[in-house]
């Protein structure tokens, strides 16, 4: 159950997509003065050393964040996301990659709150130590799916839940649907963003069908593929499913995804997609 370590994959194309979406959602929430809760169900270690053994072994970040972080004339949609990368890497050398909790910490305001959950026995102590001095944050070693029920709704009635499981066990697929459904029943106006990997397309089609069957409306799909679908290559694409997306998010991702695809996939393989699984 605990074989997956995100440190092998930090900063890859999937992270670039996921954290671009995350940053744009936080930007939208920050447009209103009222504070909100950021809930991260599978928070990981917090930060990842790109010169470490795990990241160096795969080198996935070289085809991800390393391709774009210092480019000139960047799309405005990437401004907040890349400000997080640059804040962690002073001096122009890419040493660290921030996981979603650090991106949230960088972008949230003083009155906003972070609830961060991680179950992995090696990653949780790193996460806890990362946030020891941040009074806005609460870290727990617990089942992330259960937090979607126990932590919602927040007192402010404003919130954003990022759900980013490893999918190393097949039960993660029904578990994310059950968790989102439980959270949505308690907090139907919250924003829920679910990351998914495309290893077998049929599995993702089933996931989408299960989400549709919940009766939840306003479900947006955002996908970046680096290769055509395949049963033999491992992960060929990844995406985000966003429930109750901020009104600008659809167009923002339509603007920036073609640019990201061009930079991250010089060969031009794969595709981008922004479409509604379930509309209004």
From TrEMBL:
EC id: 2.1.1.266
PROSITE patterns: N6_MTASE
Stored Pfam families: RsmJ
Site for Interaction with substrate rRNA, residues: 4
Recorded GO MF terms: 23S rRNA (adenine(2030)-N(6))-methyltransferase activity; RNA binding
Active-site residues annotated for this sequence: 164
Alphabetized UniProt keyword annotations: Methyltransferase, RNA-binding, rRNA processing, S-adenosyl-L-methionine, Transferase
Residues given in the record as S-adenosyl-L-methionine binding sites: 19, 42, 100, 118, 143-144, 164
Reaction(s) catalysed by this chain's protein: adenosine(2030) in 23S rRNA + S-adenosyl-L-methionine = N(6)-methyladenosine(2030) in 23S rRNA + S-adenosyl-L-homocysteine + H(+)
GO biological process assignments: rRNA base methylation
Family of the protein in this entry: Belongs to the RlmJ family.
Assembly with partners or alone: Monomer.
Protein function: Specifically methylates the adenine in position 2030 of 23S rRNA.
HAMAP family, A to Z: 23SrRNA_methyltr_J (MF_00934)
Name this protein carries in UniProt: Ribosomal RNA large subunit methyltransferase J
């Amino acid at each position: 159950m605990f074989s997956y370590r995100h440190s092998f994959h930090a900063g890859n194309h999937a992270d670039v997509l996921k954290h671009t979406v995350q940053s744009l959602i936080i930007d939208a929430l920050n447009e209103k003065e009222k504070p909100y809760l950021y809930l991260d169900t599978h928070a990981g270690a917090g930060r990842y050393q790109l010169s470490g053994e795990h990241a160096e072994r795969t080198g996935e970040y070289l085809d991800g964040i390393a391709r774009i972080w210092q480019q000139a004339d960047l799309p405005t949609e990437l401004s907040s996301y890349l400000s997080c990368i640059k804040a962690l890497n002073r001096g122009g050398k890419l040493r660290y990659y921030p996981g979603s909790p650090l991106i949230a910490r960088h972008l949230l305001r003083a009155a906003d709150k972070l609830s961060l959950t991680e179950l992995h026995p090696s990653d949780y102590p790193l996460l806890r130590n990362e946030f020891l001095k941040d009074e806005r944050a609460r870290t727990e070693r617990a089942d992330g799916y259960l937090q979607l029920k126990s932590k919602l709704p927040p007192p402010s009635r404003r919130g954003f839940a990022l759900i980013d499981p490893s999918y190393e066990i097949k039960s993660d697929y029904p578990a994310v649907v059950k968790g989102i459904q439980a959270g949505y029943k308690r907090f139907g106006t919250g924003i829920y963003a679910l990351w998914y990997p495309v290893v077998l397309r049929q599995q993702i089609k089933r996931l989408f069908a299960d989400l549709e069957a919940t009766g939840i409306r306003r479900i947006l799909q955002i996908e970046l593929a680096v290769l055509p679908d395949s049963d033999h290559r491992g992960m060929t694409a990844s995406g985000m499913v966003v429930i109750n997306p901020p009104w600008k998010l659809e167009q923002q991702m339509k603007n920036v995804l073609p640019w990201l695809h061009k930079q991250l996939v010089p060969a031009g393989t794969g595709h981008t997609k922004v479409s509604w699984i379930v509309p209004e």
